[in-house]
Amino acid sequence: YGPVCKSIVSLASNYEQIQFLYADNLDLISFYDIQEDSLIVFTDSSEHPATIISLKQEAVVDNKFAEKFLITRILAHSLPPLIPYSTHTQPFISALPIRNHVLVFHDFNERSRRVLEMLLPVTMPYRSELVFITISSEEHQLLQFFGIEPSGGLPELVVASMEDPLR
Q1: Chain CA centroid to CA 135, Å
Q2: Pick from 133, 45, 44: which is nearest to 90 by CA?
Q3: Where do runs of H (alpha helix) occur along 106-163?
Q4: Residue 85 to residue 99: CA distance in whole angstroms
Q5: Which of 26, 47, 100, 133 has the highest CB neighbour number within 10 Å of its CB?
Q6: Smallest Cα–Cα separation from 86: which of 128, 133, 120?
Q7: What are the backbone dihedrals phi and psi of residue 125, each rounded to the nearest 5 degrees, phi first?
C-alpha cells in the first residue's frame, strides 16, 4: 500500500512480459520468511525465488527514478545472465532500461563455448548496469552493422551504449 505499491502497479502495466502478483497472505509471507515489504523474483526455471528485493520505503520512494530502479533490480535477477539474441528476445532487449550492452558474437564451436563459460561468472556483479547478449554468427545483419567479419575468428566482444543505437 502507498507510494511503493503505486510504483509497482505502474511498473506492471509497462512491462507486460513480466507477471506481477500481489500477496498479503500471512502464510505465504511466512513460507518465504519475508520480514519487510519485498519483491520476490521467480524465474520460469525454478519454484524457488531467484532473489528477494527489499522495498524499504526510502530506497524506492526517495529515488526519483523509482520505476527504473525497480525494473533494473527485477530484470537483473530474472533474466538469464547471457541473453541469447533472437527475434523473440529482441523486443524485450530493446525495452530494457539498461542501455549499456555487452554483445558477444560467437560461432557454434569449442572456442566460443569456452569463452561464454568464462564470461558467465563475470556477468553477476554487473547485472544491474550491463546487459550481456550473445549473438550467433547466423545474425548476418548484426555482424555487418557492428563491422564484424565472421571469418575474422569469433568470438568477438563489443561493448555498446544503446542510448542512440544508430550511433
Answers
A1: 16
A2: 133
A3: 110-123, 140-145
A4: 15
A5: 133
A6: 133
A7: -70, -15
| C-beta separation of 131 from 93 below 8 A | yes
End-to-end CA distance of the chain: 42
Among 115, 113, 111, residue whose Cα is nearest residue 157: 115
pLDDT in tens, the chain (167 residues): 566 777 777 777 777 777 788 888 889 888 888 888 888 888 776 777 777 877 776 656 555 567 777 777 777 777 788 999 998 888 878 877 888 999 999 998 898 999 999 999 999 888 878 999 999 999 999 999 999 988 768 999 999 998 876 66
Residue 64's identity, in one-letter code, is K
Give me the residue label for grid cell 533472437. Answer: 86
Of 44, 96, 40, the closest CA to residue 67 belongs to 96
Do residues 104 and 115 touch, judged by C-beta distance below 8 A?
A: yes
- Which residue in 7, 133, 119, 143 sits closest to 63, CA to CA? 7
CA 28 to the chain's CA centroid: 26
Q: Is the peptide bond before 97 cis (omega within 30 degrees of 0)?
A: no
Which residue's C-alpha cell is 568470438?
Answer: 155
Closest CA to 50 of 77, 85, 12, 76: 77
